[in-house]
């Protein structure tokens, strides 16, 4: 059965890419208020895609949070495989902002194929990978008239801003997403040609730290030396949050964190990883930083950390302006690992910055969004169906890795819904997620579709 569907996917592969290009032309940047219409247009596009595939009960589900109307979820189902398991397919159609635009070789929302890669914002994260799900369903339904398992699909438009809308939906209407297993394709392969399942994600808190000094902006010659400077204050506070050796200095920050098992660490050590190659070609810096007593994989997968994303405020135009700004902000996030709770970490951080706040400065800390860390089980029939499927497609054994990134809703699938989740992603380490020149290797787009077809078939066959 899957051979025919795989054949269909191969014959229609070019059309699938053309459709993906159309979706990539829609600038569905979820964080940008000016793009609300585009975000909705992307949701509509996905809805039509699911209808065309032959899915049923396809609809947009509106979301809202305390402060704003949210972006819609797209839902679809096909529930006629009596006696078979139900699989929940998850993806997101929203993307991160594309700036800085002048770093892109081709414009972010004008997809271009070069050297077997499709370049655009969202190519791999996650429009391309989400589209693989839709096209796998189409390939099965158009050739066999049915699916090997029951399927529900949920695609969100707020993953890149914390996923509050889908979290509320899961809390209030979790029964509508009831499934025996979830499949998420929003992660990476460890290396080209190496089939990979991601079995853990870091959680996060994303915050703004605002420092206020004088009542108004001041002439820095007239007042410099006597008036507090909010940027200097932020720099001093940030420097105290993270020591030079990568250690986070917030009291109690590391309390209760769960270490990876010996077996997991052992497995990580046998992954094909060349630190020097990673430094030079992936990171492109003169040195790697952080807690050097931990390996790079541990530092990015199983250790918490802190980063600063931007510091809005003051004068950032061309040229010079001699001003002491009245206020300044730093966008600061922490990545969390199992054993850490977002609210608790936030409380410790807030208390600490209030204590270390320099004289003459008022600090305000706000949480923008948060998500819990998660480690999923590797010992179940769904994981085996995934590794069997990828063995057929790649001719290789699957490696198990964790991801340093976050997908907030995955923790809720596992904890709230009790749904075992398989994270089978097809991105590559150099796909430039969230950065200029994001790409998706087209061979992996096609292999992803084939893997999903075979996975669903395998689950249906009870293998
Ligand atoms: N797909 C990524 C997460 C990811 C990337 C997991 C690579 C594993 C490997 C996701 O779209 C993402 O970027 N999430 C955000 C989280 C969000 C709350 C802003 C992230 O990790 O920064
Ligand atoms: Mn993603
Ligand atoms: Mn992302």
The chain-level mean pLDDT equals 97
Instruction: Tell me the major beta sheet.
Output: 9 strands, mixed
Number of domains: 2
- Using the 3D structure, state the CATH architecture of the largest domain: 3-Layer(aba) Sandwich
Indicate the low-confidence ranges by residue numbers.
Answer: none
**Structure ligands:** ligand BES, manganese (II) ion
Gross geometry: globular
What's the arrangement of secondary structure elements?
Layout: H1 2-11, H2 13-24, H3 36-53, E1 56-61, E2 73-78, E3 86-92, E4 112-114, E5 117-119, H4 127-144, E6 150-156, H5 164-173, E7 181-184, E8 196-201, E9 203-212, E10 218-219, H6 220-223, H7 230-241, H8 262-269, H9 275-283, H10 296-301, E11 305-310, E12 323-324, E13 327-336, H11 342-356, E14 362-371, E15 374-375, H12 381-394, E16 399-403, H13 408-415, E17 421-424, E18 439-441, H14 442-461
Parallel strand pairs: 3-6, 3-7, 7-17, 8-16
Antiparallel strand pairs: 1-2, 2-6, 4-5, 5-18, 8-15, 8-17, 9-13, 9-14, 10-12, 11-13
Helix pairs in contact: 1-4, 1-14, 2-4, 3-4, 4-14, 12-14
């Amino acid at each position: 059965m899957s051979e025919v569907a795989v054949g269909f996917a191969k014959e229609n592969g070019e059309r699938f890419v053309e459709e993906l290009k159309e979706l990539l032309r829609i600038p569905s940047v979820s964080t940008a208020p000016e793009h609300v219409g585009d975000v909705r247009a992307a949701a509509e596009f996905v809805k039509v895609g699911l209808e065309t595939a032959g899915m049923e009960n396809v609809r947009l589900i509106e979301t809202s949070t305390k402060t704003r109307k949210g972006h819609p979820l797209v839902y679809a189902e096909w529930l006629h495989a009596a006696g078979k398991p139900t699989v929940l397919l998850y993806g997101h159609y929203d993307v991160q902002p594309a700036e800085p635009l002048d770093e892109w070789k081709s414009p972010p929302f004008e997809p271009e194929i070069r050297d077997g890669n499709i370049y655009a914002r969202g190519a791999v994260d996650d429009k391309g990978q989400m589209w693989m799900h839709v096209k796998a369903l189409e390939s099965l339904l158009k050739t066999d008239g049915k699916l090997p398992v029951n399927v529900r699909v949920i695609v969100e438009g707020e993953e890149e801003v914390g996923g509050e809308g889908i979290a509320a939906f899961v809390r209030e209407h979790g029964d509508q997403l009831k499934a025996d297993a979830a499949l998420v394709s929003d992660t990476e392969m460890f290396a080209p040609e190496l089939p990979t399942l991601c079995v853990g994600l870091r959680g996060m808190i994303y915050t703004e730290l605002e420092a206020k000094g004088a009542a108004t902006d001041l002439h820095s010659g007239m007042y410099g030396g006597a008036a507090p400077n909010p940027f200097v204050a932020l720099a001093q506070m940030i420097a105290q949050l993270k020591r030079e050796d990568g250690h986070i200095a917030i009291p109690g920050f590391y309390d209760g964190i769960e270490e990876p098992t010996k077996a997991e660490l052992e497995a990580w050590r046998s992954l094909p990883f060349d630190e020097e190659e990673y430094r030079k070609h992936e990171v492109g810096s003169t040195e790697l930083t952080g807690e050097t007593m931990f390996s790079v994989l541990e530092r990015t997968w199983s250790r918490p950390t802190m980063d600063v994303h931007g510091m809005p405020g003051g004068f950032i135009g061309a040229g010079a302006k001699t001003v002491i700004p009245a206020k300044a902000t730093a966008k600061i996030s922490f990545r969390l690992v199992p054993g850490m709770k977002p609210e608790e970490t936030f409380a410790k951080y807030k208390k600490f910055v209030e204590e270390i706040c320099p004289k003459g400065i008022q600090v305000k800390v706000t949480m923008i969004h948060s998500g819990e860390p998660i480690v999923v089980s590797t010992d179940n029939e769904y994981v085996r169906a995934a590794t069997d499927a990828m063995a057929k497609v790649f001719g290789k054994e699957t490696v198990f890795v964790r991801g340093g990134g976050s997908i907030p809703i995955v923790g809720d699938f596992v904890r709230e819904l009790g749904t075992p989740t398989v994270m089978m992603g097809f991105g590559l380490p150099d796909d430039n997620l969230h950065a200029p020149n994001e790409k998706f290797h087209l061979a992996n787009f096609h292999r992803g579709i084939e893997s999903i077809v075979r996975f669903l078939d395998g689950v249906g066959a009870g293998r």
